[in-house]
Amino acid sequence: MPEYRQDPLTGRTVIVAEERAARPHQFDIEEIGSEDASSPNGYRRTCPFCEGNENQTPNEITAFRPVSQEGGTLPDTPGWTVRSLPNKYPAVVRDAAYNDSLAFPSHFSLNGGSSPQTCHDLAFPGLGHHEVIVDTPRHVLSVTDMTEQEVSDMFCMYRERLRTLKAEGRWACVEIFKNVGVAAGASIPHSHSQLIAMPFVPPAFQSMLLRARQYRERHHSCFWCDMLQFELGKQTRIVEETNDFVALCPFVSRFAAEVEIYPKAHVSGFETMENMGDIVLLTQFAALVRRTVTRLEQAVSWMKGPLAYNFVLQTQPFVVSSQDDENLFHWHLSILPSLARAAGFEWGTGLHINPVPPEKSRFSGSWGSSFFMIKIPLLVPRVINALSACTSCSEMQNFHGIFP
Prior knowledge:
This protein is α+β, with helices and mostly antiparallel strands.
């Protein structure tokens, strides 16, 4: 069984999961068979996620299946648009021995700042839920290869899975993420996402919520709402603004061209969009995500091979420390291009060195030529104005200065 382990001094928590070592790595497998190359929708008989290969995966948890006059198709058969499955190689597992999952971590300190009670063996079983969401039945790699409707359906499945897992009452926090390309950690070249539910809120997330609570207590407002207002006023890091969403390069960007997308309205949980005309909003959000990744890919189109990147959807934990914290968070999606790898300094200190200021990495091309010393074709979307000079480090002092 997998195991959570925590360093008593730093609070760093890891998952030890031998099962993950058995994952297939189909990026290493040549596409074979002339019948595959000419098949509709890029079908690959070696790909477990392609429509028609449902017998190569565990039985589906749920799927979106269009209903016709004859009715919908049966589970684990073709005819789906998005499909959710148990992960065949899970990092965490369900265990009937622990019915009350939320009480389980009380035996395990997750407060990295507290005094260590022991110098060894701080661990508990790797309880959780791990699934794969197959984004599309077609054999494509990136969201830019998907239609806007397919991307919208993918986010609809995210929302539905969050709602279902929240209703179980067993999990404290759910992370949904997407790895695209080998450099981003993907093992199968068919667009898919992953979901991991945990019986506790990870220490880094706890720390973020604590600081957001401190900000609200001092300013009587949401940190992220105030940050969006500030960024929209400055306009130096905005990638695109729509009626209901904002895409921006965060002030503290860890990587070149890192992007975060937020709803303008204060919404804590991604699964709670049902009262906001959610279908229209999800369609708008999906289109913005697709356009943003398109810009990223075009900005580095000179690279050999497709751009690798990660999605991370951060949403309100299901369990919070008090009723006052139920609407504390502001959900958002982070897009992290794999343009550089962490090296010794980053591993040793936890500090990322970003050679491209976010004020200059709004996909106009200038950041790429200075970083890689290779000329990149200019991409100037209509929503981006001419780049201004790099903002000084004191620019956000008034906004961020409340924290030590």
